[in-house]
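Sequence in, structure out.
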Amino acid sequence: MNEDFLSTEDGKCLDAVLDRSCMLLDVCETIKDVLSMMKQSAQDLQSSIRRKSNEFDAYMSSRKKVCKVIQKFLSDLKKNTNKNNDLVSDVLTEVEATTLAVFESVLSFLSAPKKRSLVSKLTTKNSTQQVVNEVTKVDIALKSKVTEAKEVQKPLAALEINLQELEQGLESVFRCLIKNRVSLLNILNQ
């Protein structure tokens, strides 16, 4: 970023950029929390299967809570995305929009989406095939009337791997967002 762009007489542009960077950090942190909740639910279900207590209802209850949190957050995110800031450059607006689209896609992926998310498009080879991600596979296995533990274990193991990979990816994005914010603050302090 160049300093001419960010320096205005009253600093409104830089303040807007700093506010938006803080918002992106908050969104990323919330998604990390959702991933953590899902990971814990998956681990609890896996533990339940190992103990042969098959407490599927606890997992499904947790999934419903997570889906409600995700849907509320997606709704809030869409409201926040619609607030355009005329002070911020087109490039920064584009970067922010892309970042938010990826975040929204991750949340849609985790909430067993009704529509194809960006994540599911990237993880499936054939774009015309029906989306059945690991989250959905576990949900389907648990909702079936004759559920055996072994039918749940394979998709649950795949889900845990995907959650771990998403968590690592989000941690990387979070670190990049922190570095960007530090750079902006350094420009402000110059």
